[in-house]
Amino acid sequence: MQIKQESEDDLLKKDILVQQLVNSFGNWVRTDCENREGGTARMTKALYPYTSLFSPIQINKLTVKNRLVMAPMGNCQMAEETGRPNDKMLQYFFARAEGGVGLLTTGLVPISHHIDSSVTEKGNYSYFPRIDGTRTNFMGWRDLAQGVHARGSRIFIQLTPGLGRVGNPQCLLTKYQLPVSASWNPNFYLPDVPCRPLTDLECDLIIRNAAQASMDAKVMGIDGVYLHGHEGYLLDQLTSPAFNRRKLGKYTDWQRFGVELIKAIRKKVGPDYPIMYRIDLSLALAETYGERMNTVKSLKNFRNGRSIADTLNYMENLVRAGVDIFDVDLGCYDNWWLPHPPAGMPSGCFLDVSKVAKEYFAARGIKSNAGVEVPIVAVGKLGYPDIAEKALRDGKCDMVMLGRPVLADPDWCKKAYAGDVDQIRPCIGCQEACVNEFVEGGHPQCAVNPRTGHEDVLPKQSAPAVTAKKIGVVGGGPAGMNFAIYAAQRGHTVEILEKTNELGGIANAAAVPKNKYDMHNYVEWLKRQTLEQKGVAVKFGVEATPEYLKAQNYDAVIYAVGAKRINPRIPGIDTVNMVEATELLRSPEKLGSAKKVVVLGGGAVGMETAYWLSYEHGCKITVIDMLGNFMDGACTANRGHIIHYLEDNGAKLVNCATIKSFEPGKVLVSRNISKGAPDVYCTWTPVLPKNVVNPLAPKMGPETVVEEHHAELFVNALGRRADEGQYLEGVKQHVAKEIYNIGDSFQAGLVWGATKAAYNLAQYI
After folding, report:
1. What is the pTM assigned to this prediction?
2. What residue numbers bound the domain in which 592 lies?
């Protein structure tokens, strides 16, 4: 691929390589090749044994036992009020060290308290761990380092100069202080809130704090420091001309802050202590938004981002200052699906990025201050051993970084090394329990692993049941299967009663699109685990009536029957060709010859179905939703990815629209067109959580118009609701001594809710 730069005008610069990559992240499903970089991925072991993954590597004077790095996943709410790492954080990392990861990295640890007001809350509390304080805090870090070392792994602490414009602007209300940035920049969450420029003195203080925190980390036994310089956080803001437009002072040179920061750390910690730097090769904003960079108020100032050549030159200067190792990706908050690749992104999505950096360093013979090569770490959808191994063998990177895959399965490394690849629990790429939890105020968790983030209270091996029971599970979806596995492991005898001839439930439909390969892998893994679990029997084609259940003499009956679809009562609905979204996914032949499709409902199911129809079937798509924002409540990265690429492929999104009636081949809607109606295609500003009110948001007016939208096929994606009917009837008929209701039949939602409910019930039943 070409890496040279094109220029549409003097202000809008684009790198050809970045543009090619950004384009490919939407349309890759059209040319997908099975199980390869840039396509789908499977839990295969064609390249086993993984000699490259499990070979040692030197970082400065430090030897790491293998090429696997645990990505920083943000350890929010994993520390005491002082910032001292608590047992939740310790056990979380110990589990991954026991699983064989060579190098662990912590989530971000701010070093700008009392400078960047967004890193602390009212009362000077912080949801981040801290190392800038007392011996009390130091003790927590010491415990962490010692515990990781006892399990054979290494750990780096990730230091951040701050959040800057991507921090919570609540400091404006709670502390009467503006958020900060490199220059006058709009806040990411509330673009109408300005972020003031840091003074040179404040920048100098952050540098001194970083040096001291690094020395503290070294004394505490932590193996290295890791600078958070990507994704548009404060360090990235200070070291990118997109954000740093300073006209006065010593930091007008956008490279200077980063170089001075590294020099100060290196001087403090000495020549042998590893320094790692996380960087984006490009913000990719111009390549993502094109002409919008000239028209959207909150994007206009960011047109002059670093080119690839600029970034490589900066990286070279960072090495001269003292950096030993880099991990490299693309993007920032304003195109959040790039640095947080969701389920819809192809495997190994940033391997061309790491390759560019690696080849640049090799061509110029760049060595670290220790006189050794500077390893380049690849990131992005690499949780499949064959894909990761091939990346190393092909010379596209020196190490592989895994974040969500080791949240899903802490033993990923152990299983890959042993060749038990089919036993690795796959990540589904949903980002709801990991990334989205930060936004909602939680700590790292995982939709498919109920122990993640709870290792301190949930033992790896469940206690045997006091009394072994015969348990009937009605429904073989994710909730039913997970419960059966966990209950059987405790010694119960479990029978799954599935009315169809296949396990999986609605998850089978969710796994159909090519871009949902993560979900496909998980569903297949869960089916295997269920069928192979001792103590679990599956009965297909069983209608679990109260009479049938009573006849089986179960000690307990678990209802996990899923949700039922919403069938709207709208005039004329029977006059149009309509199919329910999950039915269409299960039976694509129901699409017939239709090429013009209207999807009713802009939630996750509706939008994912629309994406599938648009890219895999070449349909002209319109999506209609009554809310202002599509995929409201979904993770920002997942939402942004689908909306951006649906628009890119010509899909029409119609928001604030109430369905009035149907007529043959068309639907009539009343749509709010007031100035307060949200821009449905806006992916550069997030949808705020429901408990956060934006006082600056424009109010919607009463102006509406009636629109007609024509289609050959209408897809009902208006949602599903909990199907409690069977459970309530079972209670009424007293089908067993114990009766429970879990999963979507209790509360329609995500895999995460089903998994947690199944696990928790299995622990106490």
Report:
1. 0.95
2. 573-718
